[in-house]
Design brief:
The chain contains two helices and 20 strands. The chain is mainly β. It has three domains: 92 residues, no CATH class; 115 residues; 74 residues. It is globular and about 50 Å long. The chain starts with 5 loop residues before the first strand and ends with a strand. It comes from Aegilops tauschii subsp. strangulata. This is F-box associated beta-propeller type 3 domain-containing protein. Pfam families: FBA_3 (PF08268). InterPro entries: F-box-assoc_dom_typ3, F-box-assoc_interact_dom, Kelch-typ_b-propeller.
């Protein structure tokens, strides 16, 4: 995050070549704060639909206390200015949030986080969700109550059985239900309320390939037009991107990557400026 940052704009804001790239060289932007005793740190990039901006949220964890700051990518370039771009401090989250990538998601300009698995205690609101508004650069005052904790508080020891994803513009809570051997999905209402609706429930035995070592969980990436679901499936030796058909309960592996690749995302915008590329592409890192 202290090196070069590149921002690729959509064609409407692009140059004749179809893209505009802003590269922050040394001295063009301030570095994020260096917190002594930092035990965990995370960076999250999100798009703000209302302004078209992309922002980076940086959260550091220092012995259980978290500090936040925000950076706008390419702001000086778009404003034709040469002023130094700066990280702006933001309030701390309403609860200690997790740094594991699959336990956070960005939907319509809001970054969502599940509680930290390092809290060291049984949380009654184990599936609650903290929300950070990227446009306002502030946390919502109280976490959103999850779909299960109000009814089944006994599941509080299963923090890592939950993850978050963005599917079709909705925040989705993913629950690896080891008792039922299913992957249950709950979708959050787009209104200001906290209503969750039950979505697809996938049988683990049909989603996972038991011939591949170490397959125990799946992370949804996107729902395709034909209702199939693209999934990221980590394994002991290799990770794969898998397309699963919940109606036929069939699966197809479309990409294999080394074990070190642990973060996969999907770009859903127009790829017309990028010659030789299809309409959708997964990006791994």
């Amino acid at each position: 995050a202290t090196g070069a940052i590149t921002d690729v704009l959509p064609p409407a804001d692009a140059t004749d070549s179809g893209t505009t790239t802003y590269v922050l060289q040394s001295g063009d932007a301030t570095a994020p704060q260096n917190h002594t005793g930092c035990t965990a740190t995370l960076y999250l990039v999100g798009h703000v639909p209302a302004t078209g901006e992309h922002k980076v949220l940086h959260i550091t964890d220092v012995r259980g206390k978290q500090a936040c700051e925000v950076f706008t990518i390419g702001a000086a370039g778009r404003n034709n200015g040469h002023q130094c771009q700066r990280w702006r401090p933001a309030q701390s989250p309403p609860m200690r949030v997790d740094s594991i990538p699959r336990r956070r998601a960005v939907v319509n300009g809001v970054a969502y986080f599940l509680p930290s698995h390092l809290n060291g205690r049984c949380l009654l609101d184990y599936d609650s969700v903290a929300a950070f508004d990227l446009e306002k650069e502030e946390w919502r005052p109280a976490p959103i109550r999850g779909p299960l904790s109000s009814e089944r508080p006994g599941h509080c020891d299963q923090l890592l059985c939950f993850s978050l994803a963005e599917l079709n513009g909705h925040l989705v809570m993913v629950h690896h239900n080891n008792l039922r051997k299913t992957v249950d999905m709950y979708s959050l209402s787009p209104t200001e309320g906290v209503e969750w609706s039950m979505g697809p429930s996938l049988r683990l035995d049909s989603v996972l390939d038991r011939n591949r070592k170490g397959e125990t969980l799946v992370q949804p990436l996107m729902e395709l037009d034909d209702r199939r679901i693209a999934l990221f499936v980590p394994g002991t030796q290799h990770n794969v991107v898998r397309v699963y058909d919940p109606r036929k309960e069939t699966r197809t592996d479309v990409m294999e990557m080394p074990r070190g690749h642990i973060i996969v995302g999907c770009y859903k915008g127009s790829l017309l400026p990028f010659h030789g590329m299809g309409e959708a592409r997964c990006v791994c890192g």
